[in-house]
Design brief:
The chain has seven domains: 132 residues, Globin-like (Orthogonal Bundle); 169 residues, Beta-Lactamase, CATH 3.30.450; 112 residues, PAS domain (Beta-Lactamase); 111 residues, PAS domain (Beta-Lactamase); 112 residues, Beta-Lactamase (2-Layer Sandwich), CATH 3.30.450.20; 43 residues; 162 residues, Heat Shock Protein 90. Helices cover 46% and strands 21% of the residues. Its EC number is 2.7.13.3. It catalyses: ATP + protein L-histidine = ADP + protein N-phospho-L-histidine. It is an enzyme of class 2 (transferase).
Length: 965
């Protein structure tokens, strides 16, 4: 410790000069003479050196305390803040170690000497806190004692809507005892966020029913809910009821109130009452702020745990229903995570395919490998096209190898779940074995084939029929059997169709004369065979060649179908005689053409709307009468058949959304406009239902010759599921951010206690070396936890608040970088930290605290991921309009697949790092957020040959604008 004292005394003039230069530009020192800046500093440094050299004695400690008090009182007189005064002692802690930066290692002070120096400075800062706030060490110990008792009484969880008087009354009574108050009452806001309801009171078991107070009202409690500081109400007795609205204050004369405000939102109000009229000292207000903040954290955590328990219960019930449903179903149910490619199969997989649940692979590749090779490409292409598209369902039938290697035919159906951007994230489906069903269908086909091959020999009857066919004008054929084989045909048939008799005879009719396919011909012939009754007048259309090799012409026939009975003519079949009616049919068809075209167009529109699950409307704007199809009536909840005007239909729109729907229709109907209408609104829930439906309306207003709107047509689409999915995604993101904020916020108090405890232990001289090392390890772990919490808080603020705030000020960046590097050298003396700064100072407008945080994170990252025998280099240089800050380290490069996401939250470096260096993976994310808040950029390059370099570009002039953007 003598080396520390030697350095201080040998460089006393240098220290005083550097201190004066560093503090001259501070706001708290404006108006002070140079002598006043350093009035007690030389004598104070002599006192610190004496304690470090000879140890602490009552006389030396009294001298040091007297000099500290004189310095602090001077700062109080010029209006400096507590932070200004403590910052000056922090500055001394940075200036003194700079004295030995170029000294040989053996001449540098030991760790014990540094500890002695820093202990003197820490005690000076404690002295600042006592003199500025009047909050003594005894006050802090008393505060900790009551906070521990609050922890012991804190409920683990609070169910929403449950009675909270029982678990919260002991906490309210404890706060009363801590503040030496007569009584207290706790109010919490309801779900609407405005009404504050009494929850716990120290003087009665159950809060009086129906009592509440408006948080925005003029009452005392309303003013407390809107105030950031504790409010005092003296002479509460005899005040008007409006001032005491909502309060139950028997015997209270003075009221002290403070709001519960975790995470920037009003949770409630705590009101404490005193029997006598008296002023409330600042120490009591500060103590109440600490207790109420702690109470806010307890309630916030308990309410959150209650919500988590309720959510877990609902989830368990949902999963139970899913398990029971999958066990009762005959299908195999599967659940595919499209982001991780993991697939979960239901227990029915064993019964259907022979695989036990543990035998199914965890990834989708297991399913793909067992698809029949002839079906695999088609199935893969189809399912991925559905996922990458916009459709909600997929279905296919294919062959799948079961556990015994047999190919079973399955029908597979899946539903695709998408996020708010339309990306497929999950797919749930069911696989059904249809092998037996397909085999039955195949058996029926074989029976038909056998029936076709059974021919009836009737040579005599065929001879007579041949004579009849030659005499007929157009005798088509003789048919028999299930597929109606052409047995006979006259020459006219072959001429008309432009083919030889060999191409007609002995073939099924649809194969021999494909021109008649699709005209109901097969069904008609089946009916004649079945009933045994003749049929006259069937019109048949065909494209015929009038001469061999000639052009094809449209031709129409009227046919007579005469059944042939085996008992009468010796064979089973049909005799067909036809006459051509081409011209008459064409004339009739031309007359019917327009009607069919219109009908087809309307049918296509109807099918398209059915496929899109849309409804439609058509409104006469002159009369207000409307036509609404059944699907739109169901969406909006309109009566199924009643005639409705536009005004009557509007009553079925939710009242809150009615103005914007009316405005959208008015804009579309404005003369001279585009006439386009688009609006999303909610339909009024049906009677007895609590849920509303979201409808997306699209339409067009048609205008008459005079420019006035005459007709309004459009379509409606039910988008409720999309809206619910968007809301669920938003709530999930808010919940994650909210949970992270609570965890990081509530961890600070115990860690602060650990830090205070280790600091106190290290001050004890009776600690041996082993105990000192153990305490230092605890202190190091606590400091690392504090850094992790700081990162979590910054992350929460960046994600929920849209970025990190920066307070820019004129700054010489080179001096700041040198200071941070020096501190890093002290914490990692075994590492070689190289610093390259320009000769001229680099001045600009930046936030010094945020830039310090940025550089500390980059240095920590470089030290963590580089070998201990390699240097870490920090370079600062100026380029046009900006400055470049580079941090370089050697060692293993960053993996190429990690580089694109290295600045994203929750991303860490290589796996397998030492447990002591673990973090929450937010350091580089916060670095990038700080850089962006200054309007700058950050890049990283990493190769095995050149090492890893992070390059930060900070603009000179745009920092303030970026900070305020």
């Amino acid at each position: 410790m003598n080396l520390v004292a030697d350095f201080i005394e040998a460089n006393l003039d240098v220290l005083v000069r550097r201190f004066a230069e560093a503090t001259r530009g501070l706001e708290s020192t404006q108006g002070l003479k140079p002598s006043e800046l350093i009035s007690t500093l030389p004598e104070y440094l002599h006192a610190v050196a004496a304690i470090c050299r000879h140890g602490s004695t009552p006389e030396r400690l009294e001298t040091r305390a007297r000099l500290e008090e004189a310095h602090i009182n001077l700062r109080l007189r010029v209006g400096a803040t507590q932070e200004d005064a403590t910052d000056e002692y922090t500055l001394l802690g940075r200036l003194i170690p700079q004295l030995w930066e170029d000294v040989q290692p053996e001449r540098k002070p030991s760790a014990a000497g540094l500890q002695c120096l820093f202990q003197q400075l820490e005690e000076a800062m404690d002295h600042v806190v006592v003199l500025f706030s009047g909050y003594s060490l005894e006050d802090r110990q008393r505060e900790k004692r009551f906070l521990r008792q609050m922890d012991a009484l804190a409920p683990r969880s609070l169910e929403p809507g449950a009675d909270m008087q029982g678990p919260l009354k002991p906490l309210v009574e404890l706060i009363c005892r801590a503040l030496v108050a007569t009584g207290a009452e706790l109010f919490l806001v309801d779900a609407g966020g405005r009404r504050m309801v009494p929850i716990a009171h120290t003087e009665h078991l159950v809060p009086p029913p129906g009592r509440w107070v408006d948080s925005q009202g003029p009452s005392f409690l309303g003013r407390v809910a809107r105030s950031e500081e504790p409010l005092v109400l003296a002479r509460a007795r005899g005040l008007e009821d409006a001032a005491l609205d909502g309060l139950h204050v028997p015997g209270w004369s003075t009221l002290l109130g403070l709001r519960l405000w975790p995470h920037g939102e009003l949770m409630g109000v705590l009101c404490v009452g005193f029997a006598e009229a008296r002023p409330v000292p600042p120490q009591t207000k500060r103590f109440m702020e600490t207790l109420v903040e702690y109470l806010s954290g307890i309630l916030d955590r308990a309410l959150l745990m209650g919500q988590l328990r309720e959510t877990a219960t609902r989830l368990e019930m949902s999963e139970s229903r899913y398990r029971l449903a999958s066990q009762a179903a005959a299908d195999t149910v599967w659940d595919w995570n499209l982001l991780t490619h993991e697939v979960a199969w239901s227990g029915e997989t064993r019964r259907l395919l022979g695989f036990a649940p543990e035998e199914t692979g965890p990834l989708s590749s297991w399913w793909v490998e067992r698809i029949h090779p002839e079906d695999r490409e088609r199935v893969e292409h189809g399912i991925h096209a559905a996922i990458q598209g916009t459709q909600a369902r997929w279905q296919d039938e294919y062959r799948f190898f079961n556990r015994e290697g047999e190919a079973v035919r399955v029908l597979d159906t899946g539903v695709i779940l998408r996020d708010v951007t339309g990306l497929g994230v999950r797919m749930v489906g069911a696989m059904q074995d249809v092998t037996l069903q397909r085999e039955e269908e195949s058996g029926r086909a074989r029976l038909l084939l056998e029936a076709r091959t059974a021919r009836v020999q009737a040579d005599t009857a065929l001879g007579h029929l041949h004579v009849l066919l030659q005499q007929a004008p157009v005798a088509l054929a003789v048919l028999r059997g299930p597929e109606h084989i052409v047995e006979l045909a006259n020459d006219r048939v072959c001429q008309l169709w432009g083919r030889s008799s060999d191409q007609v005879l002995g073939r099924p009719l649809i194969e021999a004369l494909p021109e008649v396919k699709g005209q109901g011909f097969q069904k008609l012939l089946d009916g004649v065979i079945t009933t045994g009754l003749p049929y006259v007048g069937h019109e048949l259309h065909a494209r015929l060649a009038r001469a061999p090799g000639g052009e094809m012409e449209d031709t129409y026939f009227n046919f007579v179908y005469q059944p042939l009975h085996e008992a009468e003519v010796g064979l089973q079949g049909i005799l067909i005689v036809a006459s051509e009616v081409t011209e008459a049919v064409q004339a009739r068809q031309r007359a019917e053409g327009l009607a069919r075209t219109l009908q087809a167009s309307e049918e296509r529109l109807r099918l398209a709307m059915d496929a899109a699950d849309m409804g439609s409307w058509d409104i006469d704007l002159a009369t207000g009468q409307g036509t609404w199809d059944a699907r739109f009536r169901a969406m909006l909840g309109l009566p199924a058949r009643a005639e409705l005007t536009l005004d009557e239909a509007m009553r079925f729109v939710l009242e809150e959304d009615r103005p914007k729907v009316e405005q959208a229709m008015a804009d579309a109907a404005r003369p001279g406009g585009s006439g386009e209408y688009a609006c999303e609104f909610r339909a009024r829930p049906p009677q007895g239902s609590q849920s509303v439906r979201w409808i997306s309306g699209r339409g067009h207003v048609h205008f008459g010759p005079d420019g006035q709107p005459v007709r309004f047509v459009g379509t409606g689409l039910d988008v409720t599921e999309r809206k619910l999915a968007e809301e669920t995604a938003r709530q999930r993101a808010e919940f994650e951010q909210y949970l992270m904020g609570i965890v990081s916020h509530d961890l600070r108090n115990p860690l602060n206690s650990i830090m205070l405890g280790t600091t106190s232990l290290l001050r004890r001289e009776e600690l041996n070396e082993r105990a000192t090392k153990a305490v230092l390890r605890i202190q190091s772990s606590a400091e690392r936890a504090v850094r992790m919490i700081r990162d979590l808080l910054d992350f929460t603020q960046a994600r929920m608040g849209g970025g990190l705030p920066v307070q820019c000020q004129d700054l010489e960046l080179g001096a700041l970088v040198r200071q941070v590097v020096e501190e890093a050298r002290m914490t990692a003396p075994e590492r070689d930290l190289q610093l390259s700064l320009p000769q001229a100072g680099l001045h600009g407008c930046w936030d010094p605290d945020r830039v310090t945080q940025l550089l500390i994170n980059l240095l920590g990252n470089a030290l963590k991921y580089s070998p201990e025998d390699t240097p870490v280099a920090v370079r600062l240089r100026e380029v046009p309009g900006s400055v470049l800050l580079e941090v370089h380290n050697g060692g293993e490069p960053i993996a190429p697949e990690l580089l694109p996401r290295i600045f994203k939250p929750m991303q860490r470096g290589v796996p397998g790092m030492d447990a002591a260096t673990r973090s929450v993976g937010l350091g580089l994310y916060i670095v990038r957020t700080i850089v962006h808040a200054h309007g700058g950029t950050i890049d990283v390059t990493s190769t095995r040959e050149a090492g890893t370099t992070f390059t930060v570009r900070l603009p000179h002039a745009d920092a303030k604008q970026a900070a305020g953007a």
